[in-house]
Amino acid sequence: MKVFFRTIHLYLSLLAGFVILLSCLTGAVLVFEKELQETFNHNRYFVQPQEKYALELEQLVKAVQVQVPHAKVISIKIDRNPTRTTELSYHIPERQQNEKKEADKKETKANRKIAFVNPYTAQIIELYSYRNTFFYQMLALHRWLWAGATGKLIVGTSSLIFLFILITGIILWIPKTNKVVKQRLKIKWNANWKRLIHDFHIILGFYTAIFLFIFAFTGLAWSFKWFNNGIYVVTNSSVEPLKPPRSEIQSNKNKIDFDEVFKRIKTVTPDASSLTILAPQDSILTYTVNVLPINNIENAIDTYYIDQYTGRVLSIIKFSDKNLGQRVRSTFKPIHIASVYGIYSKSVGFIVCLLGATFPITGIIMWINRRGKNKKAGFK
After folding, report:
1. Which distant-in-sequence residues (6+ apart) come within 8 Å of 317 by Cβ?
2. Is residue 359 within 8 Å of residue 10, measured between CB atoms?
3. Would you give the distance in Å from CA 49 to the centre of its chain?
4. Whole-prediction pTM value?
5. Backbone dihedral region of 295: left (phi > 0), alpha (psi from -120 to 50 degrees) or beta?
6. Element (H or E) spanning 278, and its range?
7. Is the separation of the CB atoms in 88 and 115 below 8 Å?
8. I want to staple 180 with a disulfide (CB 3.0 to 4.6 A). Which of 173, 175, 202, 252 is the partner?
9. Alpha helix (H) ranges present in 111-192?
10. Sheet strand arrangement including 313-317
């Protein structure tokens, strides 16, 4: 029976091994993306707090529009930490970029940029486009091999294959006797290089298998729609989010601005770690405020909908009020990037991903060694 599983393990690994190596290697790079960004671009994210209160948000908006004519601010992210910059996401409407076009194109993330602004002085520290960064290239390689929908399918299929590789690997690891258990739990460091390669693959593969399985499994949510929908089927939940309320158009009233929204929201969210205010994109939508409470994992946000004319809070959707499927799906990203327990889980994720990148290599070496051994046995 083990011959059967060894054959499956081998050929699946030969089929998907290179993509698995790339996914693990780029995953290791991306685990500490936030920390590396903040370390090497410290001035982008941090400022010296001052004694006076921070400026009003609308002053920051105007500062961006002075430096970037026609910029339309889409959202503002405010951090609880007084040393953090304020992040204003903006885009330039298409007709302003090219007057010859007949109409605006739909706003997409492709032309969205972020202005990092000093909240005390309104100084524009940096105009930033994630798509122009090294980490975006790593993300694109990680998710779709720089090859669009085709690459996304290849990565997703390889991740699915990886799950079977891990399962068959665990089956092959199971020892026949108790004596062999010790050999498969501890690396024999004084052995020859072939034995070391064997131990690295078998023993380290055993210790990392559960983590690699979790990373590969959660990664499927970004590759396949059927997998995403399956989360809601399994949890018996609706895939459709609740419809947000709408503002009632009042021609005799001026629309409220970011500052008015911020004043109202901070009184009801004193425990916010950060909050992001999204501006309404037409006359009937509301301001949407995504609030991340202190100690909540990434994506575990509460959402507030605020009327753009009256400033009244029309609806509140707490993370705990969302259906089971939505809550489960929200955990996939922090689990996938190993950020659930901060630096500790990220360190584990980094090591596991690095080791995961070595397994296709050590597996190939073991296969070549075994083939050479079999050929010699055949000559005898």
Report:
1. 242, 302, 303
2. no
3. 30
4. 0.90
5. left
6. strand 272-278
7. yes
8. 175
9. 134-144, 148-173, 178-183
10. 124-128, 113-117, 86-91, 72-79, 272-278, 287-293, 302-306, 313-317
